[in-house]
Amino acid sequence: METLTQTIERQAETGVAKSKKANNFGGYLAGGALAGAFVGIGCLFMYAGVSGMYVHGSDLAGTMMGLVFGIGLVLVVFAGGELATSGMMIMPLAAIRRKISAVRAGWMIIFMLLGNLVGSIAISALITAAHVFKKDSLNYQMLDAVVSGKLGKDYSEVFFRAIMCNVMVCLAMWTIVRMKNEVAQIIVISWAITVFVAAGFEHVVANMTSFSLAIMNGVPGVTFTDSALALVVAAAGNIVGGMVVVGGSFVLAARMEA
Predict the structure, then answer these.
(1) Who's near 50: CB < 8 A, 6+ residues apart?
(2) Over 26-90, what HEC string results?
(3) Phi, psi (5° rounding) for residue 152?
(4) Per-residue model confidence as pLDDT tens for the chain (258 residues)
(5) Are 197 and 119 in contact (CB under 8 A)?
(6) Measured between alpha carbons, how far is 98 from 128 in angstroms, rounded to an integer?
């Protein structure tokens, strides 16, 4: 297995490749939109597949939500897409290794978030047009409860839940780079995602879809302003989780390998 230093170098090179791809603005925006849509598909599976358990208060609802939501990150990794939350670890590592500038790394994360938002809104519009969330359906009731719960949290709680969320996402992305077997990679992704969903942590890109669906389907009390503020706080927490907690920890650990 690779050393930590070798894995950091691989992650940094991935950051360089992403930076070069971003020179094609339209193509890279499309890649970000695909990732946002793939995560949105995970949200759709979660709401449509687990709504009965959730609404009726099953103790296993959280675990099942996580297990089905994992398809989103699996699609990002194996179908291809530019996901901001993993980029929050990868781009700073590229900057730390002096392969790109810190300013470039920051703009890349913003660029990914923009693409993810476009994809999240687009997939939400398609789902809404398909009438998946009909009023009084179990799917709608779950969407209402989940989004209302997210927007009812204090911003400090959202921030720390977002840190923990991206710790799990970035640990998954870090680990699969060190693995060869694709089935094992899918298992690791699924387990890591199950942890953050079951615990109720905050993923900015998943929230983009949840909030978009709530607004488009008329969930009471959900506004653009509240949704935007919650997304900004979640993004900040996700950045700390990916860049500082995961990326920073492995950079420090790599210095002790010698």
Answers:
(1) 61, 64, 65, 68, 142
(2) HHHHHHHHHHHHHHHHHHHHHHHHHHHHHHCCCCCHHHHHHHHHCHHHHHHHHHCCCCHHHHHHH
(3) -90, -5
(4) 789 999 999 999 999 999 999 999 899 999 999 999 999 999 999 999 999 999 999 999 999 999 999 999 999 999 999 999 999 999 999 999 999 999 999 999 999 999 999 999 999 999 999 999 999 899 999 999 999 999 999 999 999 999 999 999 999 999 999 999 999 999 999 999 999 999 999 999 999 999 999 999 999 999 999 999 999 999 999 999 999 999 999 999 998 875
(5) no
(6) 44
In the DSSP assignment, the letter for residue 44 is H
Helix axes 25-55, 4-21, angle to 10 degrees: 120
Of 40, 108, 48, residue with least CA distance to 72: 40
d(CA 204, CA 220) in angstroms, rounded, equals 21
The number of residues in the chain equals: 258
Q: CB of 170 within 8 A of CB of 201?
A: no
Residue 171 CA: distances (Å) to CA of 96, 127, 167, 168, 236? 18, 30, 6, 5, 18
Residue 115 is encoded by which pair of tokens?
A: 């693409």
